[in-house]
Amino acid sequence: MSRFDCVFFDSGGTLYQHLADCTDPSRQEVNARRLERVAALISVFGVEIGFDELAAVLTRCEVGCRDTLGVRYNYHQLMITFIDELGLALGPEEAACLADAYCGPRYASWLFPGTRAMLQALHDAGLYLGVIANTYWPGFTMDRAFAGVRLLQFFRTRIYSGDVGVAKPDPAIFLLAEEVSGRRGGRILYVGDDLEADVHGAAGAGWTAALRRPEAAAGDDLADFVFGHCDELTDFVLGD
Q1: β-pair partners for 208
Q2: Closest by Cα among 97, 96, 79, 75 to 88
Q3: pTM of the prediction?
Q4: What secondary structure, in 3-state letters, does 100-163 show?
Q5: 131: CATH
Q6: Long-range pairs for 145-150 at CB < 8 Å and ≥24 separation?
Q7: Residue that finishes a domain, picked among 103, 126, 146
Q8: Considering 79, 103, 127, which residue would you say is the last residue of a domain?
Q9: Residues 149 and 113 occupy one common structural domain
Q10: Cβ–Cβ contacts within 10 Å for residue 1, how many?
Q11: Within its chain, how far is the Cα of 210 from the centroid?
């Protein structure tokens, strides 16, 4: 019998590695081309705007939205504001497309080795799996990215900070996951890579916390379990 009934995961740094070099474009390369993707899509919508103007207005909107929206800031809200700022004849539907283009792809090569096999093993063992992530990506784009790397089918509940207006380590985001999933604290494990946001946050909600670390670091003993490879986590969760 598994130690847990339910496992929630962080995203970046826990499922996805922070890679600088890989066979696919790196995260840095994808982010560096976000304005190009937005400019290309705006052109498809029949709007002509100079690249320099686009960059200046978008940068201004980013600062304003972060200040105004705080934890509710995400890239869909950014694109709605951007469209309004320029007075473009585009609606929220186009704003959603622009937000998706701004985020860009994530690649399966960015996943930690063994991620899909680990999730498959936990799923096959009957565990309820989900995601709680602090992210500026809107939920529909996070879901699209998980679908692209063939992970979405594992996650029955997905809570994204910019969508719900609360972020880790606030215990409220973990309690929201309980409410949505119908699961309760004692037999829930949260898996993350940040001591404050993930371990302290999960503990504040009464959950068990596992911390992904390639090497031991100060404070890691505050987590209930520390691991470096997905196989170790699988053994911990499914072990007696």
Answers
A1: 189
A2: 79
A3: 0.93
A4: HHHHCCCCHHHECCCHHHHHHHHHHCCCEEEEEECCCCCHHHHHHHHHHCCCHHHCCEEEEHHH
A5: 3.40.50.1000
A6: 145/103, 145/105, 145/106, 148/105, 148/106, 148/108, 149/106, 149/107, 149/108, 149/110, 149/111, 150/108, 150/116
A7: 103
A8: 103
A9: yes
A10: 9
A11: 17
The tens digit of pLDDT for each residue in 97-136 reads 999 999 999 999 999 999 999 999 999 999 999 999 999 9
Query: Does 179 share its domain with 115?
Result: yes
142 belongs to a structural domain? yes
Q: Which of 14-23, 122-131, 182-191, 202-211 has the lowest mean pLDDT?
A: 14-23
Split into its structural domains, the chain has a count of 2
Tell me which residue range forms the domain holding 127: 6-19+107-238
Using the structure block, give the residue that is written with the tokens 């304005």. 35
One domain for residues 181 and 233: yes
**218 & 118 share domain:** yes
| Residue in the structure block whose two tokens are 């960059």 | 55
